[in-house]
Design a protein that fits this description.
The chain has 280 residues and is of the alpha+beta class. Helices cover 60% and strands 10% of the residues. It is built from eleven helices and five strands. Strands 4-1-2-3-5 form a five-stranded antiparallel sheet. It is elongated, with a radius of gyration of 23 Å.
Length: 280
């Protein structure tokens, strides 16, 4: 039996907000689902191509205020984009991506039409840290080009990848960007201290970035990598420059994250730093 819901608000021809017996309010998206409908009308839950909850009142207000400025065809197309992302990631996305990515793509399309481009300073780091999200973001950019003949600059791939990563990890974009900025700062500190330029396409660079990313995650999870006092003493004697730099990086991380960093991280950072300078 089809579940009947009562419409609370028609946002446009393709989007309505309906009352739900369990979730209070749900957003229903589907081609023509809101056409010629009004508050109080009944609508079948099965009529929607996509449904999502907006339990956060601020996000709901943002979504409602955003829709009048977006082409209804884009709203319908966003449904295809989000279903593609979910299928490729193999998991459900956090509901906030409906607002955040719709908002981002709407204005990215507007910027592209006006030939305005934003640079993405974390593009290489994003590609290294989130390769799957980056690949899917490239597919989304291709979908937009095929559908709307709009060519996004390369930097947009990185921004879309961050939205995807945010939706699958339940981390905010602010938190992700803060971590990416910290990683970029730490890599620059390595280059300055060791007086080297790291090839951003090299395996060593990707290893270093991945390790710094995992180290930050371990800090938040309060995870310890092990107590290797003998190995630490050996590395301190064999590679004093790298060992001291490792501790310098750890102190920067502690200050930026405002959390303690496990001392054992110095061991693994030292090994990664030594790889950068020692080539067989």
């Amino acid at each position: 039996m089809e579940q009947q819901l009562k419409i609370k608000k028609v946002l446009n021809n393709n989007v309505v907000i309906a009352a739900h017996p369990t979730y209070e309010e749900v957003v229903l998206i589907g081609k023509g689902i809101g056409f010629n409908r009004k508050h109080g009308d009944e609508i079948s839950f099965d009529k929607a191509d996509k449904t999502f909850l907006l339990s956060n009142e601020q996000e709901k207000e943002q979504y409602v205020s955003l829709l009048p400025y977006i082409d209804e065809n884009l709203i319908d197309f966003m449904n295809d984009i989000l279903l593609h992302i979910e299928a490729r990631m193999g998991q459900e996305l956090n509901q906030h991506i409906h607002v955040a990515l719709t908002d981002h793509l709407a204005f990215a399309i507007k910027r592209a039409k006006q030939d305005l481009q934003f640079s993405n300073p974390f593009l290489l780091e994003i590609e290294s840290l989130y390769p799957k999200e980056y690949q899917i973001a490239m597919e989304v950019v291709t979908m937009i080009y095929d559908k709307m003949a709009i060519q996004f600059p390369e930097g947009e791939v990185g921004f879309i990848a961050l939205h995807i990563h945010s939706a699958v990890t339940d981390k905010t974009l602010r938190e992700i960007n803060k971590h990416n900025y910290l990683i970029t700062h730490l890599v620059r500190l390595v280059e300055e201290t060791m007086d080297i330029t790291i090839d951003k396409n090299s395996v060593d660079y990707h290893r270093l970035v991945q390790h710094l990313h995992r180290a930050i995650d371990r800090v938040y999870q309060n995870e310890h990598v092990g107590d290797e006092i003998r190995l630490a003493n050996m590395l301190k004697e064999e590679y004093p420059v790298c060992y001291n730099l490792a501790w310098k990086l750890i102190k920067v991380m502690q200050k930026q994250l405002n959390k303690p960093v496990d001392e054992s991280e110095a061991i693994y950072l030292t090994i990664h730093l030594q790889r950068l300078t020692h080539k067989p």
